[in-house]
C-alpha cells in the first residue's frame, strides 16, 4: 500500500453556539458562562479540538458574540455566523464547509460540555459503516401524560430513547438534507430522516447532559471536577526506539517529511524512523506492544506502506482507550542529513497527523559524535517519549 494510494478521510465537528439559552436564567448566554474555571463553550470545544479523529471544528455563533471568540486561536478552529433557529445555524455551518473536501460531520450542542472522547469516537467509528449515527440513552423511567399539574394518562416507554449529540453524518448527505428541509426540526436526526437517511443509535452517556436549567450548572461542575481528578491520577508515559539502515535512494522520510539525501532508509514500510519511534511510544504508553504487533512485517500488504497509517492507528487507539495525547518528544540521531532546516515542517506534519497543536510536538536532532553505527553514517536512530492523560 503505497503512500499515494492512501486517502485521508476528513471529519469536521460543527458546534452550535448561536442560541440565547433563556431557560438557563439571567445573565449571559449559557455557553459563555463560567464552568469549573472556564466557560461552557471552552470545555465543549476542547473535547473536539483535542480529539484525534476530528480534523476541523466550526463554532457557529450569534452575530452579537464575535467578541466572545476574538481571542480563540487553534489551527483546527474557525467560526461561522448562525441563524435565527438551530437548524438555520446548522445549515450556515454546513454551507461554510461546502466544497472543502469534508467527508463526515458531527453536529454537537455547545451546551453539552461534558461529552466524552468515547462518545465522539463511537460516532466516528459508526460512520465507517452507516450514513448517520447518534448517541442516545434508553428511557427507563415510567412516563406520564399530564395537564394542570395532574397525571392524565400513561405513555408506553418501549422503544423510546433520550437523544444526545454529537450526531454524525456523511457530510454531503446532511448538507443536501438541510437544503431540502423546510425548517423547524428539533435536531439533525429529524432533518436526516426526512431525507431518507437511516440513523444508527450508539451508546450515549449519562454525563453528556445538556445544560438547560440553572441547576444543570452544578451537575456539570461536579462531572468535570470528578473527571479532572481522575485525569490527574492516570498519566501514562511511553518510550519508543527505532533504527533503519541506509541504502539506495535520493531522500529519507523523517517525521512525515521527505528530506533530500544521497541515500534512502531501508525498511519494510517507508522506513520513517522518527514516526516509528513516536508510534511505538504511544503503543508503549498503552501497554499495547509495538508496530510489529499491529502491522506484522511478514504481512506483504504493509510493504512500502506510509508510516502515517501506523501513527494514525496508534492515535485512534489512544482515544479509544479514553486517553488524549498531552505531548510527544522525538529525537533523531544522525550525522546527515541535517534535520534543523526541516524540523519545523516535521513538527507541523506530526501535529497534523496526531490532531495536536504544534507546540505539543517536539522534533529535534543530535549526533553521536562520530561514534557507533550512526556516527559511521550507516543509518539513523530515533528515540521518542509520549505522555498520555485520561480524557
Short description:
One of its GO terms (biological process) is isopentenyl diphosphate biosynthetic process, methylerythritol 4-phosphate pathway. With 391 residues, the chain is an alpha/beta fold.
Name the descriptors:
single chain; 391 residues; alpha/beta; Spore Coat Polysaccharide Biosynthesis Protein SpsA, Chain A; 60s Ribosomal Protein L30, Chain: A; 2 domains; eight-stranded mixed β-sheet; 19 strands; 28% strand; disordered N terminus
Give the topology.
Layout: E1 11-17, E2 34-35, E3 38-39, H1 40-49, E4 56-61, E5 77-81, H2 86-97, E6 104-109, H3 117-126, E7 132-138, E8 143-147, E9 150-155, E10 161-163, E11 167-170, H4 171-180, H5 188-194, E12 199-203, H6 216-233, E13 235-247, E14 251-254, E15 257-260, E16 264-265, H7 273-285, H8 291-294, H9 307-320, E17 323-333, H10 343-354, E18 361-366, H11 372-375, E19 379-390
Parallel strand pairs: 1-4, 1-6, 4-5, 7-12, 17-18
Antiparallel strand pairs: 2-3, 6-11, 7-10, 7-11, 8-9, 13-16, 13-19, 14-15, 17-19
Helix pairs in contact: 2-4, 4-5, 7-9
